[in-house]
């Protein structure tokens, strides 16, 4: 490797950054307001005022509550807004039911991990609960596929009820 460097190819940055000189004698008002705003935001009374305002209006961002809407069977004919709301409600219900199944499955896995070789006798409640939950989920949402919707789910429930009536007679 050569000892002397080509200073023209790799120029050394200046040791001091030059100061930008203003072109007018009038000060910039944006700098003034920015400085004043910065000093006022750091004061204790400003922070206390913000905390008081936030304590008045509690906002829990982690629970979004939707009002229950009528089921698809309760919608009037041609009421497309009701159809849309019922479909959105059905999708939320399906998502909640899917999470319930997943939580019960995780609890069963944790019990099996915790109990080790005694899992069959000590985790019997969790196994039974998982069977019930998955059967309920399968009865309601099974065989609908990825593109299932509230209407096909309602028709499935109607057919299942008709089969149960025929079996009871």
UniProtKB/TrEMBL annotation:
Accessory subunit that is involved in the functional assembly of the mitochondrial respiratory chain complex I. Complex I has an NADH dehydrogenase activity with ubiquinone as an immediate electron acceptor and mediates the transfer of electrons from NADH to the respiratory chain. GO terms for cellular component: mitochondrial inner membrane; respiratory chain complex I. It is a peripheral membrane protein. Belongs to the complex I NDUFB10 subunit family. Keywords: Electron transport, Membrane, Mitochondrion, Mitochondrion inner membrane, Respiratory chain, Transport. It is found in: Mitochondrion inner membrane. The keyword Membrane applies. This is NADH dehydrogenase [ubiquinone] 1 beta subcomplex subunit 10. It comes from the Eukaryota. The gene is Ndufb10. It holds the Pfam family NDUFB10.
